[in-house]
Specification:
Elements (H helix, E strand, L loop, with lengths): L2 H18 L15 H12 L3 H83 L1 H19 L3
Helix pairs in contact: 1-3, 3-4
């Protein structure tokens, strides 16, 4: 196993080594970046085995670790796909709700506008009817309102 492979898979290899060699401590298995050779020498001394035996052991663990890593990657990819799918469904649902709420608000606005228009027409018609029935009073009210408005607007 090369130093690069050791660096990339050390977390999983460390666990397997602890299972196989119970006498190893966390300090024995502490990996410092760029110090792979130092770690291997420390393990070789602690276990009392040759460098070839240690390399063989690490090479035996490599497929197990790689298999676990690939399994984890596959699970992570599956979870990622599920999250994307779920997120897509949530976004679509939110879009549909937003459109429905917008359409509801538009319908309510149109109803309020129609009601206001009807009330304004009713007031207009009521005003016209009042003027027809009471023309003299209507003219006097209009003159009085104009007089008050004129005084208010042109006051110096």
């Amino acid at each position: 196993m090369t130093n690069s492979q050791l660096e990339n898979t050390w977390g999983a290899v460390k666990g397997k080594l602890k299972q196989r060699y119970g006498q190893l401590t966390d300090d024995d298995l502490t990996f410092a970046e760029g110090k792979g050779e130092e770690l291997l020498s420390r393990l070789q001394g602690k276990l009392g085995i040759s460098r070839e035996e240690l390399d063989s052991t690490l090479d035996d663990l490599a497929p197990v670790v790689s298999g676990k890593l690939e399994e984890i990657k596959a699970k992570a990819a599956g979870i990622s796909d599920q999250i994307r799918t779920t997120t897509g469904h949530v976004v679509d649902d939110l879009k549909q709700r937003a459109v429905a709420m917008g359409e509801g608000a538009r319908a309510q606005g149109a109803a309020v506008c129609d009601e206001t228009r009807q009330r304004a027409r009713g007031l207009w018609n009521g005003g016209e009817e009042y003027v027809r029935k009471n023309p003299l009073e209507s003219v006097l009210i209009a003159v009085g309102a104009g007089f008050v408005a004129g005084i208010t607007l042109f006051r110096r």
